[in-house]
Amino acid sequence: MLPLPLQSDRGIGKYNMEGAWHLDRVLEDGEKYGIYHILTLTNQWTFNQQWAIHSYNSKNGGPIEQPAEYWTNEIAQQYFEKFLRYVVARWGYSTSVFSWDLWNEYSSMPGSNIAVSIPWHQRMAKFLRSIDPYKHIIHTNDGSLNGRDAMNALPEMELISSNIYMVRNMARVAEDITKQHTSKYGKPYLLTEFGTGHSVNSVGGYASMDPERRMVHNGLWAPVVSGGATTGMAWEGNWLDHNIFYTYIKALSMFIDGIQFSKNEWLPAKISSFNYKDKTDKGEMFGDVIVEGWSGNYRRENYIPDIFQIDHNGNVDHQASLNAILENSAKSNRNSSVTFQMDYPTQGEFVVCVSEIRDTTPTPTLSVKVDGKKVLNKALKPLNEKGYHPLMYNQYYSIPVDKGNHKIQVENTGGGSFVTSFELRNFIENDGPKLEVRGIQSQSHILLWFKNQKFTLLHSLMNINWEPQPEGVITIVDVPNGKWIAEWINTINATIIKKELIENNNRQLILNTPVVNESVAVRLYKIT
The pTM is what? Predict the structure, then answer.
């Protein structure tokens, strides 16, 4: 029997009652279990993958001939306003509705200029505000992590929402973008989608790339302790359908339980020092840092510097210009090489991680030069491994680097393309355990997250192990004097490590940190 051809729905202005009934049940469960939902009202997928059967398509009786006309066609806009009226009438009552999200990835509308979507968003947001008696939050969603200033700055968009895929160090990415958006626009920020990539069919789903769900874990935690409005939201059901995901959620739920975030004025945690508790633990006083460019879901700047400068904390100037893909093709406008300038404080290593081979013909070749001298020339040929796929290449190449200032060039001198990340080892000077510390503080609460530098998806993919980090002593300043309760949580298995009473003076609070294998967190609240 031949499969039935795809059919459009019943036509514009007619709603799917079965789908509406299912949403009724979802929101009822949300009310029962205290779950809040972002209701996305339109999505780019239907215009990109389903345009042939889309009800707005003139071939199916709709008012427009091409998707881009959706933003400006008056009849199309009137029908969407009717839809908004129905949505509010049917679901506006529900306490499980967190917000009205006008669009999922409006920036991916095929063939459209972003500028023409702005009047549409203003019109629909104002109309929705006028008919919603419950005053739900109204916003939209950008498919690029850094979004568009013109949209994000609109007063009608009451929070910022964006997505990111295809990065390997989610903790740092989520922290940086959360701080950028909240400080730039003075609005709440939601990392509403994150994941490893879009080649789901090739490698059996994103979940196969991250069996320990490290990226899920780090994407959950980083926004919360960086001033975000929520956790990051991992995308793909297979990724979440695992017991460890619910353990991660449980740990975070324990951590924030009872904290009234909206009634506190939060600032980044002010950490003045972090040292080893036992001085005999002191080894090399240098840590490692990942430097990562963008391979998708990010609007890179047109300007590309000849040399990317990396400061002593691993920050890259013109980070928004850094492309993770090195492609050697006459048909591509991507660069085949990237050059970094950096100053190593001691003898270290420059590690090139190749996570994916995007194009295998002709064979890509990884070439590395240090101060003009070629130190590596490696043809990236298929691996002789069971179940190998180019999108799971995951090999790294370590290059010794002397103390001092160096210029390092990484180039694809062959053909095709591959995706890079870099680790600079023995690069960051630190006086204590090799942990990344992120946190926020208010007059009554302090929230800190301690993560092993190598507990990332990148290290998992490259099969790079880590060492547990010994006990430390951390000092937080500008803390109101008094008595504080500190509750330590293992974020991996959702267990309480210890609970202690701490009294501070001189507006300094000193904590003894436990041994950290992968990740722990501490929440402090003032009792007197």
Answer: 0.94
Reported for 201-206, long-range contacts at CB under 8 A and 24+ positions apart, including other chains, are: 202/389, 202/391, 203/389, 203/391, 203/392, 205/236, 205/238, 205/239, 206/235, 206/236, 206/238, 206/239
Q: How far is it, in rounded angstroms, from Cα 316 to Cα 321? A: 10
CATH class held by domain 286-429: mainly beta
Whole-number average pLDDT of the chain: 93
Q: Sign of dihedral through CA atoms 334, 339, 342, 348?
A: positive
Specify the CATH class of 267-283+433-526 in words.
mainly beta
**159 and 228 in contact (C-beta within 8 Å)?**
no
Question: What SS3 state is found at 161?
Answer: strand
Neighbours of 336 (CB within 10 A): 19
Contacts (Cβ under 8 Å, ≥6 apart) of 439: 225, 268, 269, 271, 446, 447, 448, 449
Q: Which two tokens stand for residue 43?
A: 């999505």
Q: Which two tokens stand for residue 306?
A: 């000849």
Tokens 């090139």 -> residue: 352
Half-sphere exposure in the Cβ direction for 501 (13 Å, CA): 4
Give the span between the Cα atoms of 161 and 147, in whole angstroms.
8
Phi-psi region of 122 (alpha: psi -120 to 50; beta: other; left: phi over 0): alpha
What are the tokens at 143? 């498919």
Q: Tokens 């002010």, residue?
A: 270
Count Cα atoms within 13 angstroms, Cβ side, for 270. Answer: 12
Give pLDDT, residue 330.
Answer: 65
Domain ranges in the chain are 37-141, 267-283+433-526, 286-429
Give burial (CB, 10 Å; 0-12/13-18/19+) of 385: exposed
- Read off the pLDDT of residues 94-113 as tens digits, 9 standing for 90 and up: 999 999 999 999 999 998 88
Give the pLDDT confidence of 260-302 residue by residue, as tens digits: 999 999 999 999 999 999 877 666 689 999 999 999 899 999 9
* Contact in structure between 356 and 393 (CB atoms under 8 Å): yes
C-alpha torsion 198→319→425→473, nearest 10 = -100
Compute the distance between CA of residue 140 and CA of residue 117 in angstroms, rounded to an integer. Answer: 11
Mention every residue, 6+ apart, whose C-beta is less than 8 A from residue 99.
38, 39, 136, 137, 138, 139, 158, 159
Tokens of 335: 């660069």
Burial 42-68 (b: 16+ CB within 10 A, else e): bbbeebeeeeeebbbbeebebbbeebb
